[in-house]
Amino acid sequence: MATIDGRPALYGISLKQLEDLNAARGRDAISKLEEYGGVTELCRKLYTSPTEGLPGTEKDIAHRRDTFGSNHIPPKPPKTFLSLVWEALQDMTLIILQIAALISLVLSFYKPPKTEVGNIDEEGDHGWIEGVAILVSVIVVVIVTAFNDYTKERQFRGLQSRIEGEQKFTVIRGGESTQIPVREIVVGDICQVKYGDLLQADGIIIQSNDLKVDESSLTGESDHVKKGEGSDVLMLSGTHVMEGSGRMVVTAVGILSQAGIIFRLLGATVDQHEEEAKKRKKEAKKQAKKRKDKDVEEGIVANSHTPLPTTDGMNNVGHEANGGKDTTKEEERVSHGNKEKSVLQAKLTKLAIQIGYAGSAIALLTVIILIVRFCIQTFLIEGKPWDPYYSNHFVKFLIIGVTVLVVAVPEGLPLAVTLSLAYSVKKMMKDNNLVRHLDACETMGNATAICSDKTGTLTTNRMTVVQSYVCGDYYKTSPVPHSAPAQIVDLIVDGISINSAYTTLVMLSDKPGELPKQIGNKTECSLLGFVLEMKRSYQEVRDKHPEETFHKVYTFNSTRKSMSTVIRLESGGYRVYTKGASEMVMKRCSFTYGQGGKLEPFPIAMQDRLVKNIIEPMASEGLRTICLAYRDFVPGKAEINQVRIDSEPNWDDENFIVDNMTCLCIVGIEDPVRPEVPEAIRMCQRAGITVRMVTGDNINTARSIAMKCGIVTKDQDCLILEGKDFNKAVRDQNGEVQQDLLDKVWPRLKVLARSSPTDKYTLVKGIIDSKLTDNREVVAVTGDGTNDGPALKKADVGFAMGIAGTDVAKEASDIILTDDNFTSIVKAVMWGRNVYDSIAKFLQFQLTVNVVAVVVAFVGACFIQDSPLKAVQMLWVNLIMDTLASLALSTEMPTADLLTRKPYGRTKPLISRTMMKNILGQAVYQMTIIFCLLFLGEHLLRIDSGRGADIHDPPSQHFTVIFNTFVMMTLFNEINARKIHGQRNVFEGIFSNMIFYGIWIITFVSQILIIQYGGLAFATTPLTLEQWGWCVFFGFGTLVWGQLVTTIPTKKLPKVLSYGRGHPTDVVALQNLVEDKFDGDGSDKKRTAGQILWIRGLTRLQTQLRVIRAFKSTLEDLEEKRSLHSLRSSRSHSGLRPPTANDIIYIDDDTRSNSFSGPTSMQGENRRAASAGVNGDGYLKLGRRANGVPSDPLLNYHIQQPYQMLNLVAPPSALLPVRDPSPMLDLPRLVHETSI
């Protein structure tokens, strides 16, 4: 028999049997497991140990991977370079240029008979050069675009692989707990799961400590599912651990896990849906053609009363199949109706649309004027007859018009956005910011408020017990209770060692002088350190009481604010150890130990004295106070602080179990403020950003830390509230949050203590929705816990802690702080502002070129029947201002000056008055120079005039000088564009950006080569040194002119000169309208030819914007592979069928739902559920919530983890809290009590 590391190679259970086990649910799963002999026998059949795990040898792991599969769901294959080339070629303007170039080529080879019209000389033999040059230019543009897209995709896939490699999960191998990359998990691994984990594989529960899981991402059910040997033994990938801890044996990984199965079903459904759609469309076209032929035969003429057949087969079939309801249009409305754009993206879209309108109108007008003038001059005034030779002129006019459109449409804008974001994301990784959503990068630059956690973000998160109160003695200098009786110390040591996660460890450093390494929860680490300071070993206690011997565990959550563990006593009975927030645990204590270890009653009066004399002084020094307590349940005779039992207590009655306890001690834990945080907060305040602290700690600790950080000062008029007072202030008599009440509180609120996740969400939502300030607030939020998810989702930018943060918090966030440091948030602000400024610089540069090029082409068409700038020349300028300039201006490094100005906010104009002043000022200068050269150049430079030249005449020095001067002015204006806030020194920091000056020099050298050696291909002729001197002189003049423009005071300019002002919601509505025109079937819209022209002209722009979003979703592939959004598991039903097209709704990948649904851990509130949306077959219908169903954003919290590739949205179950009416808070009294 073949063996692997001494064990049989053939497992005791087959892959098919494991699949059957994983397909069962609830009681069926328990029965199925019993068929295989239970979980212990299952582990034996998989050759693994429930306590020791796998041996972890390479040979064993490789064999399991070969047999049961690897824990990897393959991503969508990347697009090939050729497919990206093909996409770039779909741009309508490029297609028109190619057609025009081909016509030009054909006509250049056409030899008409000699007439008096066309005096074709030898130069006419080179007419093909212009057509070839245009084709070459188009090829260059296409290749550059495709290469940029290809490079971006490779970069983001590399970043995705890095993220996947960094994500780890805790397993037991060789008897030791270790963290391994998620991809390395194999069937048979023993995984340790805990509160906040996102499960990475399917498995069977071995041991459960009050384990509850949110399975709503798979089932749509909002209630937490309790996991245990007698309730539900199956753990599913893509679900979240909301409470408790435990161990499971892995039974399915990768594409064989629950997430993988649904992923395969969805992939197959999409492919099948696309194929069927293509077939239906072809069939509909055939039917339409047959119907048309039949109508012609019968002599029927379609008029306004005769409905014409549609050619959109898919819509037609969908309409008929659904009783007249057009499912495709419905899907498109859903997919485009809920978009939430970033501030900058919304403003840029509006700008691009309006530039497209203007450019299209001028291009069309240019062509019309050129044709009309030529016809009037040639056929009416000169009276010449038509000759085929004249067709060359019309092709030339068309090429000029299309080229004007190409120059006018800001195709480089998406490229600039993409390059700037990609460059910033890469650099931000080095600044400990892992950007998950690209638009969060630039949104952070607009942030006006930051709501920050305290622990770990503002503080070091290296907890240490520095004070203690034991047996009536207050130990302030050293926490070790020297005078406490041994039996009390034993109880404290046992309580700390047992009542903490066994994954939490304090390991002594190998290097002398270094602090011990803290692994796991930092508060528990500080308590374990306290045990070590008392010269005791917590590991010995844990070895005596292994985790599987625990009788019951009440895990920590935001409601309890405590943790309790029940163990069996050797003498019989049970002992409950509890630890938690001092004021919460003390309320449940009836006894305490006094001097000499004497047991004493612990009345409320004594508790109040303890709060005043011990807890408040600790808190005022910035210490977190933790109370340790215990309670015994014993058979037979019981002491005064014990409970006599005849049978096992009802462990589900937590209020009874954790009550009338005996207080052991109170400890003060110090979490010092990070040394760099006060300066970082001062930088934020100088930058116009308000920093607020939102913490679960008590108000005294929060106030102390806030003052140390500089969030509040002694002479500052501000509010410091506790969560309960905050709720009284912002809720009406019915318990509903009112915006007008919130608006009275949040502007002065600086610290919110003892806050719940609901309070945090309420505050964030209130600030975002407030209209108190003209520019509207842009809010960033930090969070680390599972219940921070709603606030992180609601915030404009959500920051999750990379070290202390749970998987759920990371899933809900936009940026992950890999070092949990507030200073990294300040760096994110700086990079965000740099992105905004980089794009603004590019806009200032490009709009100047746009205005000049379009106006020159238009005026040339009107006055000289020709464009001074030829098609190939404008394509070269387009390349300069699009690809090269976007690369140069988008890679500027951020400077400290970025944090000396106020944030832009939501409604600030995209193009400021200063920028508009620079754009118009430079445009006036450049147009003046070009028109002077156009109409007076031959006199000034003593050269032949190029005006009125025949179509086949060779290039003139006159027009070559104009082209060269225009490029020189454009190049020197690129240096001006580096500053957008009125700075005079435009050269500052220029040599710190090698990309900028490198591209500038390359462009300058290329221009020299084009002028001197471009010849007929670029319609140029070599220039003399004197002429070059004049061109460079005029170009350099833009720098001097820029200084004159800067002297004009911006404040005296009318505000109408700024552009892009207004609320982004209006901009989003406009973009959705435009994208509906792009993507809708058009059956209910009547478009004019002009609309079609500008829409098609913007196709490339829109495509590139979508490419950005596609690459953003590529960055989120990790999220795709680990979680699914609200699909009822089809494996849980007897009949297996893939979801149909009607079950699935596709939404755009940057949709971020602000309506949360799902589980809540809040207790004591009445709830009622709305329909879960299950159809007759037992499948969850995918779609949006029915209208009219109210919801609480926190209580209906459903972790939003869609496959970004498919973006599924499920109908949530609405849970409605019924709150007791609370009396209105006396705000003036509250302000007086809490102000500093």
UniProtKB/TrEMBL annotation:
NCBIfam families named in the record: ATPase-IIB_Ca, ATPase_P-type
Compositionally biased region (Basic and acidic residues): 322-339
Region (Disordered): 277-339, 1122-1174
Cellular localization per UniProt: Cell membrane; Membrane
UniProt organism field: Artemia franciscana
Pfam family, one: Cation_ATPase_C
Name used for this protein in its record: Calcium-transporting ATPase
EC number(s) reported in the record: 7.2.2.10
InterPro entries, sorted: ATP_Ca_trans_C, ATPase_P-typ_cation-transptr_C, ATPase_P-typ_cation-transptr_N, ATPase_P-typ_cyto_dom_N, ATPase_P-typ_P_site, ATPase_P-typ_TM_dom_sf, ATPase_P-typ_transduc_dom_A_sf, ATPase_P-type_domA
GO annotations of cellular component type: plasma membrane
Compositionally biased tracts (Basic residues): 279-292
Known role: Catalyzes the hydrolysis of ATP coupled with the transport of calcium.
Entry's transmembrane regions: 84-107, 127-147, 351-374, 394-423, 842-864, 919-936, 956-973, 994-1015, 1027-1045
Reaction(s) the record says it catalyses: Ca(2+)(in) + ATP + H2O = Ca(2+)(out) + ADP + phosphate + H(+)
GO MF entries: ATP binding; ATP hydrolysis activity; calmodulin binding; metal ion binding; P-type calcium transporter activity
GO BP annotations listed: regulation of cytosolic calcium ion concentration
